[in-house]
Amino acid sequence: MDTKSRRQVNPDDLQSIIATSIDGFLMVDMDGNIIEVNDSYCQLVGYANPAFRVIQCVSEEELIGGHACGVFGCVNAKDDPQGCGHGIHCRDCTLLKAIEETFQTGTGHINEEHHIVVNGEGHQREFTLLGSTSLIYSGDQRHLLLSLLDISEQKKAEEEKRSLEQQLHQAQKLESLGVLAGGIAHDFNNILAIIVGNCFLAKMHPDKAESNISTIENASERAAELCRQMLAYAGKSQFIEELVNMSQLVDEMVKMLQATIPQNVVINLICPADTPLIRADASQLRQIVMNLIINASEAIGEAQGKVLVTLKKTAINAGQEQKDHLGKPIPPGSYICLEVTDDGCGMDEDTIRRIFEPFYTTKFVGRGLGMSAVLGIITAHKGALQLVSQPGFGTSFKMYLPIESNELAGCDAPGQLSSVAWTGSGTILLVEDEEQIKQIMAAMLTSLGFSVLGASNGKEALEMYQKYAADITLVLTDIGMPVMDGYELFNKLKELKPELPIIISSGFGEDVITSRIARADIAGLIIKPFKFDLLSNLLKSVVENQGGI
Questions:
Q1: Helix/strand/coil for 105
Q2: Smallest Cα–Cα separation from 246: which of 333, 312, 187?
Q3: What whole-number distance in Å separates Cα of residue 503 and Cα of residue 430?
Q4: What's the DSSP call for residue 104?
Q5: pLDDT at residue 181 above 70?
Q6: What domains, with CATH codes, occur in the chain?
Q7: In 392-408, which positions are buried (b, 16+ CB within 10 angstroms) versus exposed (e)?
Q8: Comparing C-alpha atoms, which of 429, 425, 474 is closest to residue 455?
Q9: Which residues pair with 472 in a beta bridge?
Q10: 38 with 29: CB under 8 angstroms?
């Protein structure tokens, strides 16, 4: 080392600095032997005295002349509470490594390390050190000065803070789940009110039951879509894009909600039948329409009021000043615009700023994902949202969904029944643990021309297949079942007959199923609940792909 860079220290000044410092100081020679310590260091390496419940200091006489490495326990001190005992030959000692580094480079560092000191009676104390080392010169002599700081209390405070933060985070998660559960219960109760009410009306007027059954079917589909929405929120399913007739969708939702909102609120609908189709996820769009209309009706409260729902095709031309709720320009193009306006209480600036926060609500009962879900769905569909509101003057939401150039009005809406009813033949092994669902599915399959063998779990189905393998043309199985689930049944059947077509019926999303079974190995996949025409179309596709079976 260059003599000009040597740190020359006056012995008297150094003694004064060491003696008065609140940090622990010790000085060692080139062999690592302690030649000087201060009172703070004696306290630092003291041990807990259980008799007095205090830190008992180690005296200077006990330390001076000893090796610095032997004062503390090793890095693995918890496994070796008696300390290292290896002296200068211990290569695991962080302190020794810092000493060696300092004699080579002039400085060294002791990173955050946990240590233990033990006295002759076996009393010990644990603490965490942070420190630095430097090489000093006094005349021609080289010594190493170590400055050590006990950060045990700081570490303890950090751990307590981290623990409190985790507890707070857990409490917030539980609160969010409670709010979300309240919102889901609210939506389901609305749907169940429609179903129960129409069942009552059908019993009262059997001659008019057809219209009630249609309403019940729509409400049931809405409940199924709400379940799919929650599975998607939990990352258990994927959204499905299709051609959507917004006029039909909005009209159905308004009719469904008309029976659930208070009688003091009137819904006026302006919805032309010739609006272009858009490519979107119908279940998500229904969620938007439901949220906007219910929020609008609740904003009116107990007063007489109205909600105006308007659907129209619109265009935003280049140069037009159209901005979304955040003030960002809406891209030029053709859009389907849904506007929901109420003459209710309106919102102040603070509410408008927070309305899109997850789980935020102005109601005394939580409303689930609320407007944050609405905004997320619109954004996922590359749309835009506008909001205008003022206390005492109501609120207006405008949702813009883009129309793709190749989406033409008048195209057949998806899911429509074929004009010619399809029928199949052969025997289907139906595996379903819910007896009522099994009966309904068996009736559907029978009406399509199939014979049905029923089983309540995978083990029963496997035994049945081994007995009637020559007659069974395909298998339709659930996934979640007792004794033997659908996954195990699928694998065992494929071992017996790899080419056997197996259709999976499940309440879980496709991503969950295909995470354990390769999609190419599955003949068909249908998510519960499903309509008859969807089952018919799937069976027709599977049968045709198998060459008529």
A1: helix
A2: 312
A3: 10
A4: H
A5: no
A6: 3-150 (3.30.450.20), 173-402 (3.30.565.10), 427-545 (3.40.50.2300)
A7: eebbbbbbbbbbeeebe
A8: 429
A9: 427
A10: no
